Amino acid sequence: MDTVLEIKDLTVSFDGFKAVNDVSTAVKKGDIHFFIGPNGAGKTTLLDAICGRVKPAAGSIFFKDCGDVTKLAEHEIVERGIGRKFQVPSVFNSITVFENMELAAEKKRTIFSTLFSKLSQEQMERIEYVLNIIGLYEKRFEKPAALSHGEKQWLEIGMLFVQQPEIMLLDEPVAGMGRKETDKTGELLKEIAKDCSVVVVEHDMDFVRDFASTVTVLHEGTLLVEGDMEEVQKDPRVIEVYLGR
Ligand code: ADP
Question: Which of 25, 41, 84, 85 minimizes the number of CB atoms within 10 Å of its CB?
Fold first, then answer.
């Protein structure tokens, strides 16, 4: 598989404390790549570095043919095709599911532009396609308040995917979901991964086991082990530091 993103010798420091310490890894095209590890391992900081929210003290992040994106501002990184979903919800509750998707498709974060400008036929078709794969086409004229917790998460994932990113970064997308919703989210990520690599920070080990193509285990800022879930979960270092057995 082709490499979409290459992280090389990356260190992120906060007042001299290395939250990410000399990490090198790569995300492949079409991969569902999980970052796991105990609390404080550096997973979220690594996502923050990829999307430009924090700047590294050392190292580089190469994305497609864009060169080292650590030199770019956060919005420039988004424009080049790296989308990030945060744990904090970012849907607008006063407008419908469809209007939220329109907003995202336009990449203009104002409600006015959505209400008063027209999307192209291509954008409309893209929205309908994404509404179908996130399972919300029938609910497109509902307001987000009418959606379940899982449906709200899928709407947010859809709002990222409608922008056609090449990598999607997700921070604990199944937090607060039951098993059925979690599995549905995994199936959605599999569908998305046909077009877009997916990087997920996750605590739910059943979810990781069922849907990961690659797993990177971080511990105290360093990369401990990397591979497929089968290799990773039988590694004695992982059992010791992460699974605690
Ligand atoms: P994880 O996502 O694996 O739980 P984080 O990336 O959130 O870990 O944090 C890694 C370490 O860096 C933790 O010890 C955390 O306290 C520290 N850290 C994260 N962000 C900051 C910050 N903005 N300022 C200072 N320390 C931070």
Answer: 25
